[in-house]
Amino acid sequence: MIIKPRIRGFVCVTAHPIGCAAHVQEQIDYVKSQSSNKEGPKKVLIIGASTGYGLSSRIVSAFENQAHTEDLYAKSINGDAFSDEVKYQTIDLIKKDMGKVDLIIYSLASPRRTDPKTGVVYKMALKPIGKSLRDKVLDTDKKMVLEDSIESATEKEITDTISIMGGEDWELWLDALDSENVLEKSVNTIAYSYIGPKVTWPIYKNGTIGLAKEDLEKKAIKINEKLKKYKGRALVSINKGVVTQSSSAIPVVPLYFSLLFKVMKEKGIHEGCIEQIQH
Q: pTM for this one?
């Protein structure tokens, strides 16, 4: 089977299915080689589990398609996770198959979001705030390091990005799960974030995506209050920089990662998504 790469923007829209399956199997084998925590969560909902940290979270919880061969429950819903329709489709499946869940992982990233209440479509903009940025970037197609200029974000681009990558939808998910009584006692929920080094702060920490992550942390405080009746918690996990479909879209960051990985591998401390989530 020969599959040639087709690039659309920063995303390769083709993938070798056998290679993907082998990569997932490698992650499964790694998880099975580690000591298991029998006291950990048993019924997990992962919102955004297609690649990166979300996929690794699913594999750590109960593998992927291979789960059924080991008599583990695993089902997927493919749809717009921002929509009310998918939220309640998921809740119906939980009621039918699991009753309640004891861990919710929120790992959703998208270039756009339709507000389920108003129908307004938000579009993400990965930009600096206040002034434009000129910096070195990695052109993965040409395999060259170039200089590029990124204009500063408008107010609408800032609010749109917060609406997509902030914590509003995370809170809506928890509210829906709570209202339908599908949360176990001591339920926990985790969302993923990143800080990065100062060299990336103009585009990340101090840019539109950074403000969205600040909103995520604020929403974690609100969700934490709501989960007190369950004796549960809402946490934001700050993870290591890794190459994912989402991170590769952020200007400047791929170049930094290519240097970071080289140094960490030389020191023997490099980890990918699966090692981070397993630990």
A: 0.84
